[in-house]
């Protein structure tokens, strides 16, 4: 059974997304004209495999990575997440823009959260080293 | 600027949820599904919460003191902690978007955005 993958951009800025070091794809901004319903890619979005992840393909057998950028500036470090080793029909990836160097990701499987993280350009260890 | 109809509640889960804004009425949120292409489902039945220029009030998001939102999952009556966030007086924006994400029967997560930019987030754990 095919598993669909949705990527949602809830911000007023268009973003570019990279999944497992694949080809970047665009997700347009949303806004009042769309009642702030988050945007999805019109083309080039990721797909899914029950096997190992590969460029622009989410997999269940190993961790996946995803990152987003705005105008060439990456919104924090890539998110690494694993999908559950169970049957499901859909994966939803939400990106919430915070600043030009950070964002919050939510990863859902059939509407239930399986991963959640705020990513920043500066890892805690890097900040400690700077101090 | 009209401040009406600028508070948008989204349910990103397949679970029936309801939300109370600042101790206002419980607002039912329809779940999403594959039939809706998994897009988060916006609140579609009144009364819709509003945005007011003063302090928070029942079913009205306000400025200067904490807004408090409570989710109800499976009719669990007393979820804690409530999702609280403060919008500083003078903040300029047109719309606030609030998302609810479902983890499990005892957990949900909140995300609040001002014009699409992250304002606050919280994961709430419930006792059954």
Short description:
With 131 residues, chain A is mainly beta. Chain A has one helix at residues 124-130; strands at residues 4-9, 15-19, 25-27, 47-49, 57-59, 64-70, 73-74, 79-81, 90-99, 102-109, 112-120. In chain A, a hairpin with a 2-residue loop joins strand 10 and strand 11.
Description:
- The complex is a heterodimer of chains A (131) and B (128).
- Chain A is 5% helix and 45% strand.
- Chain A is mainly β and 131 residues long.
- Chain A has one domain (4-130).
- Chain A is globular and about 35 Å long.
- Chain B is mainly β and 128 residues long.
- Chain B has one domain (7-125).
- The model of chain B has no long low-confidence stretch (mean pLDDT 88).
- The chains are: A mainly beta (131), B mainly beta (128).
- Chains A and B meet through strand 1, strand 9, strand 10 and strand 11 of A and strand 9, strand 10 and strand 11 of B.
User: How many helices of chain A in DSSP terms?
Assistant: 1
The profile of the biggest β sheet of chain B is: 5 strands, mixed
Number of domains of chain B: 1
Q: Beta-sheet strand percentage of chain B?
A: 35-45%
Structural class of chain B: mainly beta
Largest interface: A-B, 33 and 32 residues
As an assembly, this protein is heterodimer
Classification by helices and strands of chain A? mainly beta
Strand order in the sheet with the most strands of chain B? 4-1-9-10-11
Query: How helical, in percent, are the residues of chain B?
Result: under 10%
> Percent of residues of chain A in beta strands?
over 45%
Q: Could you give the count of β-strands of chain B?
A: 11
Mean pLDDT of chain A: 91
The global form of chain B is globular
């Amino acid at each position: 059974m095919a598993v669909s993958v949705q990527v949602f951009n809830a911000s007023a800025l268009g973003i570019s997304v990279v999944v497992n070091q694949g080809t970047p794809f665009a997700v347009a901004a949303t806004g009042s004209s769309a009642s702030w319903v988050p945007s999805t890619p019109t083309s080039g979005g990721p797909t899914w495999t029950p096997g190992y992840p590969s460029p622009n393909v989410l997999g269940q057998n190993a961790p996946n990575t995803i990152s987003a950028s705005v105008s060439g500036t990456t919104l924090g470090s890539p998110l690494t997440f694993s999908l559950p080793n169970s049957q499901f029909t859909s994966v939803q990836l939400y990106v919430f823009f915070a600043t030009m160097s950070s964002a919050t990701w939510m990863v859902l499987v059939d509407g239930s959260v399986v991963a959640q993280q705020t990513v920043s350009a500066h890892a805690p260890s890097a900040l400690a080293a700077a101090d | 600027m009209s401040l009406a109809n600028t508070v948008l509640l989204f349910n990103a889960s397949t679970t029936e949820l309801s939300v109370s804004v600042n101790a206002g009425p419980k607002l039912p949120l329809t779940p999403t599904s594959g039939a809706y292409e998994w897009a988060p489902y916006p609140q579609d039945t009144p009364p819709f919460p509003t945005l007011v220029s003063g302090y928070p009030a029942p079913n009205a998001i306000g400025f200067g003191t904490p807004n408090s939102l409570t989710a109800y999952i499976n009719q669990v009556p007393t979820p804690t902690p409530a999702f609280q966030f403060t919008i500083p007086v003078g903040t300029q924006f047109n719309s606030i978007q609030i998302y609810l994400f479902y983890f499990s029967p005892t957990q949900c997560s909140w995300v609040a955005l001002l014009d699409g930019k992250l304002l606050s987030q919280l994961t709430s754990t419930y006792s059954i």
